[in-house]
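Long-time lurker, first post. I've been practising inverse folding by hand and with some scripts of my own, and I keep getting stuck on stretches where the structure tokens seem ambiguous. Below is the full token string for one chain I'm working on. Before anyone asks, I'm not after the true native sequence, just a reasonable design that respects the backbone. If someone could post their per-position residues I'd love to compare against what I wrote down in my notebook.
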């Protein structure tokens, strides 16, 4: 039971980090899996630890590093990655929880990982939109750098301290619930401003 909880802690923790920066977390996971292959069973871990996969992930990470720090472009990048980050979170959760491809555990881990990654992605996007509105994008560079560091640290904590990672993943879920009303209010305000006024 404790081992299963630890595996879920690792999987959901990795997913939470992927919601901030999928390529950083995939790169950390693949790099550690390459160093300690006996501790990372399963086809997904083997694939991510291949030199070719690590090279591609490194190139994508470098691309994100620069794209995510340019005001305006960072929002476009976030929109594109609304699909990529949850998919990466689901993949990492399955790799950690169900490396043997058990159907029920794969569905549970993949679904949970995708939801947590999407939640982290929404929190990230909400903070970034707020920053753009308040600072005209000036603070986005520092925020992006902090997200890169947090994503990498989250991946390391998830692998070596899974129970701590599980607590952090739950915290991300709580932040998501706090951000949704603010995001909905912001979208409503934006659409009401664009809606033409009725002529009396």
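-- Answer (accepted) --
I ran through it position by position. Result:
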């Amino acid at each position: 039971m404790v081992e299963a909880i630890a595996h879920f802690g690792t999987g959901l923790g990795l997913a939470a980090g992927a919601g901030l920066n999928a390529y950083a977390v995939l790169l950390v996971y693949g790099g550690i899996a390459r160093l300690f292959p006996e501790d990372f069973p399963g086809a997904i871990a083997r694939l991510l630890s291949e030199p070719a996969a690590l090279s591609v992930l490194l190139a994508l990470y470098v691309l994100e590093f620069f794209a995510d720090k340019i005001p305006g472009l960072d929002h476009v990048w976030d929109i594109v990655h609304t699909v990529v980050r949850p998919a990466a979170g689901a993949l990492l959760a399955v790799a950690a929880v169900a490396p043997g491809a058990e159907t029920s555990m794969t569905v549970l881990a993949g679904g949970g990982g995708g939801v947590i990654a999407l939640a982290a992605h929404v929190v990230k996007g909400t903070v970034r939109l707020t920053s753009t509105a308040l600072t005209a994008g000036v603070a986005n560079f520092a925020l992006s750098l902090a997200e890169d560091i947090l994503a990498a640290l989250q991946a390391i904590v998830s692998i070596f301290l899974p129970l701590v990672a599980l607590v952090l993943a739950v915290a991300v879920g709580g932040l998501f619930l706090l951000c949704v009303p603010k995001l909905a209010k912001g979208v409503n305000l934006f659409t009401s401003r664009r809606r033409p006024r009725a002529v009396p």
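A couple of notes from the structure itself: The CA atoms of residues 126 and 165 lie 22 Å apart. DSSP finds eight helices and no strands in the chain. Happy to go over any region you disagree with.
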